[in-house]
């Protein structure tokens, strides 16, 4: 194949180290990627030993709570403004036959929800200590205990979701079968496709309405090293096209994510995208866990939270103990 997509960060690290991916440094230099890509951490995540191996295409952030305005109206409660109000509204939603929180059965969804809860409840510094510094003592501390308590609330609220894919969970929110979903900004593509309008049909709370922070992870294209000269030329054309201002606008408006270029016109962005752009402008950002943790550590986290969300008998205390062991051994 000529190109493949990963989340920029450490997912493709071993492929690059094995010599399977093409060095894009020449293309990046010609196109002045270092001058146009913001934040610079995106290009840093594509860089191994001084060479650039991927083309960032968007900033997608996990830290969003998507709410169905119709579901809360049916339940007779106000649309929540933060996580605590959402938890408090859960009984009214359940009484109206609505699942409070839609969570799909794939392990990465439960893991992502936990990571979002961590930065919202424990804050940026603790998030960085645990995932950036691999601080097992911080992972065992009272701040993370609060996060596991919130994850326990989320687990109870998600009972009855009975879907697998993330977009099926989003559809539960779109159709009013669920009150909300913790999911990245790519969920906006589903709302747009369903003809729903931000601020009217659905509400978005960055940082769960608690800590308005977004992660600057996202999608990036890598290019396998090929011997075919014509295909290699085509790789260069695709890499340049991905960063073209027109591509950046068209793609990100469809996906609901943010452009990696700070010099593009997003006047037609919806209310939720504008919130994300404002947070980005203020610099209230963190790196994504794909950037901070190896693929192996991420998989261990997924195994833990898949079990935690599926097994109500696992206590928050027991889950936290396993989490500490994962962080202590993280690379």
TrEMBL record:
InterPro entries: Bact_solute-bd_prot1 (IPR050490), SBP (IPR006059). Transmembrane segments: none annotated. Keywords: Periplasm, Signal, Sugar transport, Transport. It is found in: Periplasm. The keyword Disulfide bond does not apply. Pfam families: SBP_bac_1. Its main location: periplasm. The keyword Signal applies. GO terms for cellular component: periplasmic space. Part of a binding-protein-dependent transport system for a sugar. Belongs to the bacterial solute-binding protein 1 family. This is Probable sugar-binding periplasmic protein.
């Amino acid at each position: 194949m000529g190109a493949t997509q990963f989340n920029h960060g450490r997912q493709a690290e071993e492929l690059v180290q094995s010599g399977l991916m093409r060095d894009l440094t020449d293309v990046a230099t010609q196109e002045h990627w270092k001058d146009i890509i913001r934040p610079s951490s995106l290009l840093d995540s594509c860089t191994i030993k001084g060479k650039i191996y991927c083309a960032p295409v968007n900033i997608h952030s996990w830290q969003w709570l998507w709410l169905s305005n119709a579901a809360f109206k049916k339940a007779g409660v106000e649309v929540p403004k933060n996580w605590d109000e959402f938890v408090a509204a859960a009984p009214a939603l359940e009484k109206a036959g609505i699942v409070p929180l839609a969570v799909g059965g794939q392990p990465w969804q439960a893991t992502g929800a936990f990571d979002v809860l961590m930065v919202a409840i424990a804050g940026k510094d603790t998030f960085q200590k645990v995932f950036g510094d691999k601080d097992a003592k911080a992972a065992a501390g009272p701040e993370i205990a609060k996060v596991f308590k919130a994850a326990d609330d989320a687990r109870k609220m998600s009972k009855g979701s009975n879907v697998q894919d993330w977009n099926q969970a989003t559809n539960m929110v779109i159709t009013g079968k669920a009150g909300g979903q913790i999911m990245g900004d790519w969920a906006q593509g589903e709302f747009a496709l369903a003809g729903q309008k931000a601020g009217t049909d659905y509400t978005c709370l960055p940082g769960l309405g608690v800590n308005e922070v977004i992660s600057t992870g996202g999608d990036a294209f890598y290019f396998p090293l090929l011997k075919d000269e014509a295909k290699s030329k085509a790789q260069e054309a695709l890499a340049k096209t991905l960063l073209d201002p027109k591509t950046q606008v068209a793609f990100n408006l469809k996906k609901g994510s943010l452009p990696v270029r700070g010099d593009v016109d997003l006047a037609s962005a919806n209310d939720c995208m504008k919130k994300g752009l404002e947070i980005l402008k203020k610099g209230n950002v963190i790196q994504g866990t794909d950037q901070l943790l190896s693929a192996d550590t991420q998989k261990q986290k997924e195994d833990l939270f898949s079990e935690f969300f599926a097994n109500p008998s696992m206590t928050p205390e027991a889950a936290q103990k396993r989490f500490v062991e994962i962080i202590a051994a993280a690379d």
